[in-house]
Amino acid sequence: MTAPAHSIETLAARRRRRTSRHRLTLGILAGLVFALFTLTMVLGQSYTPLTTVIRVLMGENVEGASFLIGTLRLPRALVSVLAGLCFGLGGVVFQIMLRNPLASPDFIGITWGASAAAVFSIVVLSLSGPPVSIVAVVAGLLAALLVYGLAARNGVAGARFILVGIGISAMLRSVTSYILASAPAWSLQDALRWLTGSVNGAQISDVLPLLLAFTLFGGLLFTQRRDLEALRMGDDTAAALGVKVARTRILLIIAAVGLIGSATAITGPIAFVSFLAGPIAARIVGGGGSVLIPAALVGAALVLASDYTGQFLLPTRYPVGVISGVLGAPYLLYLIVRINRKGRSL
Amino acid sequence: MFSKVPSGHRDAVRSFWLVGLFALLGLLVVLSIVVGTRDVGTDDIWAALNGQTETIGQSAIAVRIPRMVLAVLAGGALALAGAVMQGVTRNPLADPGILGVNSGASLAVVLGVAWFGISSPEAYFWSALLGAAVTTLFVYAVGSLGPGGATPLKLTLAGAATSVACVSLFIAVILPLNDIAGGIQTWLIGGVGGATFHRIVPVLPFFAAGLLISLLSAHKLNSLALGDDLAAGLGDNVALSRIIASVGAVLLCAAATALCGPIIFLGLMVPHLLRLMTGVDYRWLLPLSTLGGACFLLFADTLGRVVARPDEIEVSIITALFGAPIFIWIVRRQKVREL
């Protein structure tokens, strides 16, 4: 009777192949992010040799390059990477938890709650720095709570959740526009940051809060990753597998909103990154392995690539959100068409 | 026909609303001229109404009159367009703003300004009309793919996606143009400020045409409400009814957007509230919505001038703040199956 042993070996081999394939995918994605990061550091309006960049990063003072690299390119690239990681990770958590790719924070009001709060605390309360991030995270949580509460009736139905979220988003976007329009000095650049997202004017002091938030909320998420995978199969199945559904869900929402809110407080709501990262990552990963880290990496790559395109590849300089918005909208329509074709109700 | 309420009573309720809304509109017209960021004495108001613009007060009134006219026109047009769209798509969430039609029209106007150098009110209107028509077709096509046809969720999502795309493209077009980028506010946040008769008059015929087509399609919308099969059984050409009614709605949206920029939720909430009060008969609902929309936008504009003195709040912000809760309330009331 060698058949069972044989099949166990086959299964084990398949599992090993899947794991190594997953590792390879992660490696390739991380390499892509690193390559884009390097590109941003080396080639802007002018070319700076890689050796010079490394010398500046090691703390050497290089004539002409220190300001360019240290003050302009490095903060921008770091903020892009971290914001992309946060948006990608936060978005995919909602998509998995609500089992719907359209349930990304862009649509269900969380990003706009954070953005409205950030604008309010900057323009009206004249805050700056970490307090803005805290206000944005709290407001994002409140928005999530509000949408959740309003959509709940005999359980949370996906369709109602998304539609209520669209309504709340429209309202919060109006609030943001109003605060911006009534600000004493209406500046187009500022307005665009809070309406479509931008990493213009990123500073090195923005990096630390973002890194802290990513570590804290990403870490919280990491402790819940197995339960999240179980939630993917439905609440009842997850409960049967021993997951405390309500507790897990609350922790996941806190972690994901924390990620989205802290990124939004710095860069504004970069259009569609949190929506696009998950589905793209799922397609790359295929059936094998977790989609969380790939989604975060895809998010970072999206922000870096969109920002680079907006800065240097087009005749005019555009903020990153305009580029990701123009890129993301056709994909959203494609997704709706595909879901409609399949006849799967949302 | 089978309603428990006797039809005589229902007609009385409707007539009451019709008269009431007319009276309200009259009251709001007076209020919107008298009330504003600046207090103006009665003498100056009379003088200004007779065409004098010597004092600052008289000039303020002279600015308020075209503004009032535009609020009435745009409010009536958008609410009527919303009611017609709800009938055509048999979708409770249809609204020119939510379905992305207004943002498509805005984008087309900006494209016209940026690439073809248009500047006359007529040219604004024709670009807005083109944009509104293309967006309507596009959103409806995307939203009605697959089994089940155009469900509210599919249409709403298609509309939301389209408007995000339009806004991104819009910013991409306008950003390189420093000379018009300053005016971006008008096209991102809809409002009736800065209205002049010089801009309103050329668009008037299109308002009139849209109004006429929409109001005349009330009968067809009543048949469509029974379902496509029954409507066809009653001898209607269902597709033709839809096309004609949509043409009316698109004309109205384009005319309003060409003058005011995007205004969201007005076309959703006014017909819904009136439907609650007066029933689902489109022959009554359409004229009542027109009046109600004019009242609401006028109210929103007057409110926006008063609450934040000396600043103003644009009407589109007020309609969003009032309209979003109503949108959510409708979503909550519907059974999930129907969404």
Automatic annotation (TrEMBL), chain A:
Q: Which GO terms describe its cellular component?
A: plasma membrane
Gene3D superfamilies, per database record:
ABC transporter involved in vitamin B12 uptake, BtuC
The biological processes this protein is annotated with in GO are:
siderophore-iron import into cell
Enumerate the CDD domains for this protein.
Answer: TM_ABC_iron-siderophores_like
> Keywords in UniProt for this one?
Cell membrane, Membrane, Transmembrane, Transmembrane helix, Transport
The Gene Ontology terms for molecular function here are: transmembrane transporter activity
Q: Would you indicate the residue range of the signal peptide?
A: none
**Could you tell me the superkingdom of the organism this chain comes from?**
Bacteria
| Location in the cell | Cell membrane
- The transmembrane segments are 24-43, 77-98, 107-127, 133-151, 158-181, 201-223, 250-278, 284-306, 318-337
Location, primary (coarse class): membrane
Q: Give membrane topology per the record.
A: Multi-pass membrane protein
The record's InterPro entries line, in alphabetical order, gives: ABC_BtuC-like, ABC_transptr_permease_BtuC
What does the sequence similarity comment in the record state about its family?
A: Belongs to the binding-protein-dependent transport system permease family. FecCD subfamily.
Q: What is this protein called?
A: ABC transporter permease
Q: Which organism is it from?
A: Agaricicola taiwanensis
From TrEMBL, chain B:
Q: Which residues cross the membrane?
A: 12-35, 68-85, 97-118, 124-143, 155-177, 197-218, 239-270, 282-300, 312-331
Q: What is this protein called?
A: ABC transporter permease
Q: Which GO terms describe its molecular function?
A: transmembrane transporter activity
Q: Which GO terms describe its cellular component?
A: plasma membrane
Entry's localization field = Cell membrane
A Pfam family cross-referenced in the UniProt record is FecCD
* Keyword Membrane included in the entry's annotation: yes
Top-level taxon in the UniProt lineage: Bacteria
Recorded topology in the membrane: Multi-pass membrane protein
What family does the Swiss-Prot or TrEMBL record give for this protein? Belongs to the binding-protein-dependent transport system permease family. FecCD subfamily.
Q: Which organism is it from?
A: Agaricicola taiwanensis
Per the annotation, which location comes first and is thus the protein's main one?
A: membrane
Biological processes annotated in GO: siderophore-iron import into cell
**Keywords for the protein's UniProt record, in alphabetical order:** Cell membrane, Membrane, Transmembrane, Transmembrane helix, Transport
